Sequence to fold (858 residues):
Amino acid sequence: MSLTQPENMQGRTKPMAAHVDSPPQLVSRKRVVVIAWDMGHNPVGRAYLLADVLSKNHDVTLIGPLFKRYGGKLWGPLNNSNIKIRTFPAEKMDDFINSSIKFIRDIEADIVYACKARLPSMILGLLFKYNCNCPVILDIDDHELSFFPNRAPLTVDQCIKGQDSIEGLELPFGEAWTRVCETLIPHFDGVTVSNIVLQKRFGGTIVRHARDEEKFAPDASVRNRVRAQFNYCERDRVILFLGTPRAHKGIFRIAEAMRRIGDERLVLCIIGSPNDRRIEQQLVDFSGARIDLHEDRPWEDLPTLVHLADGACLFQQEASAIAEYQIPAKLTDMLSVAVPVAVTDVPPFTDVPSPSVIVKVRSEHQIDAFLRSVANGTAGGQKFKEASRQYFIDELSYKTASERIEGAFEEAEKKYRKWSDEIVQLFSFLKTQFRVEIPTDTPYWSKASIGAPAIKKDRPIDIAFFWKQNDTGIYGRRHDMLIKYLAGHPRIGRIVQFDAPMALRQLSRVEHGDGSFIDQNNRILANVFSRIVRSADSENIANRVFVHRDGEQAQSFLGGDLPAKDDYADWVRRQLAEIAPVRSFVSWVTPVVFDYPQLHDELKFQLSIADIIDDQRAMPTTPDYKAKLTQSYVDTLKRVDIVFANCMAAAKAFAEIRSDAHIVTNAAEILRPIEPNAVAPWELRRFKRPIIGYVGNLRDRIDVELVERMAVEQPDWNIILIGSAHRNPPVLRLRKLSNVHFLGVKPYEVALNYMRFFDVAIMPHLNNEVSDLMNPLKLYVYCSVGVPIVTTAVSNIDEMRKIVNVANNHDEFIQMVYSIVANVSGDFKDRASNLPIEHSWGSRVEKIVSVIDEFVKQ
Fold:
């Protein structure tokens, strides 16, 4: 195996229209996909480095094609890697694109890191973005055009117009497409680069070639041991070259200098196969200098091998276009153990301290002087050792690289994502030219509110949105959808969303025992932390939560003192003031939020809105708590200007307090049809069909007896329950049934994909006082993915009765499911939303905004 890596990352985007103090950094574990443009030779080295850095805090998968041109086998140093690696074979453009589309379908990503401005990595990154609406950051560690004769960038339009005269378009890694790639860089959500020269050309955040500071550190005992293994004595002065020896890397320049000096203590130790017999023979025949050639060594040996060195020479050709932008990773290797390094004075070394950390050489005389100082033992004194190690820790360590990458990720996630016309043009050309099944439409997420324009002066309504729980963004509930679609409406400016306040002790109440996977606490905790560190913010939505001390005693959290519970109103005022004057905000509250009446009175919003989604008084509780709920409803509804309710029953339940509620029923998103070759999530693929699925809260509204009877009477049906069981004993007793499976809480976007592959979606709800006052959202969501639906005959579903199957009793329910199962084709590609446009969230939000506008006029 070779130790060779590509010899050679920090981009930030603007925050949400306001200054935000940076809290202590907490990194939430994400699914990160790192892409290399070819996994068979040394360009994958940089991708592997970044994957290794990220693997400490994230679940990382390193992926990429294996092009036949480069051997079609995994690069040797990665054979024993602990990083999850996935590859696929490719040869030319047509099979590369078709294979890429199939390859990424079952890979889930929260963020994608594409390495190098080459078309294979860029196309894979863009396909992930199309499918997942995840941010894609591009890492640049070389000027890729410097490897080709024609270094002039080429736009997609120019490529299409000149296609008849451009050679090599069938090679995705060739010169023509690499010229196009340079013009595609601005279409990525962030950029990292490996050195200052690349930053000047492409912008972005500098993430240098790094090494793990816990593994790479000076150690005299390791030095003595490894030098003995290589038969070097204390008198020998080793000039170490790690990697593939090539002429343009200066190996013969080093040998010539050693011959000139004639000091027999100097030895050039080369560890790495030349892969060129002519180079190997030249080194063997070279006279007048000691040169030791060693075969490739495993990558994991690198922290030991660097201890062989007394010095290193990183010589590049000053006139080379490659050297103008490339900095060798060997610099990091040497500085990690404080080895003196001489480098050619080329631009990438501009910001590396010299002569305190590196020695820049401009002539053969200076090279000779450096080698003599190594031979005499005068190179690398104590001051150099301290300075070089400190520079390594500050700039070249995993810790620094991780911090900079996380910063780039955070800013990319804040950025609203769009799908540019140029990418549509590129994909359309590829589809036509190479007859591949690459998507040529605008992705569904870019058509929705998330791709809406940034905030402008003609969007005057800023909203302070108060939710009663701590699960915003997880389940795709009514308030999640309202926030999303309000944020995309041209009349709405910024939204600051507040989840329920929490005492510090509540953050520790996370279940880890048996069954915790089917509860929601872990996700809620992650949700809270993302709000504390502000990683949950997007372009025009800020997400906040107030964490206060448990009592009067001082408590600190994440390096800061916690406020008292009574400081909530002042804290909200400060959060809003970061965005806009507090008086400009419209408040939106979803009762019950016990703190809202006080907030309303103290902050004096210009307009206030309440949205009634249920009646918590109908839920099982104590008389005292029911009285508290009633008082909160009264105090809230009497204060607000506008009241919405999700069904007539809910409006009537509060008519004595407010009789002027506007009915805005639930809705769903209009989703694009399932991809023709889409596959079910892996958890569903484990089960034999038919699959009968339920997604939602598994608490007091579930008809457990119905589910139990269905499972017992139909043992061949696999019943999938997705959602939080809230440690509810009646529901949990279903676990004893072999064909009932609890898959736990799934975020909304993930749950949608599970629903798409249900044979039947069910809503086995009880008819009780709780359901009588609800408009069940899940029926709309089921319809949005086109799955057949069977529901019990609960209240407030009149507008859905023409679309879903409504059962009046258990017998009817099971028979309706049976009839659907008997006729299901198993072909999911024909499924599409059967929801009328008037039942979409876009339509609901239009009505809401029109009510607000009408109230303002009056």
The radius of gyration is 31 Å. Residues 355 and 384 are 9 Å apart (CA to CA). The chain has a mean pLDDT of 87. The first helix runs from residue 44 to 54.
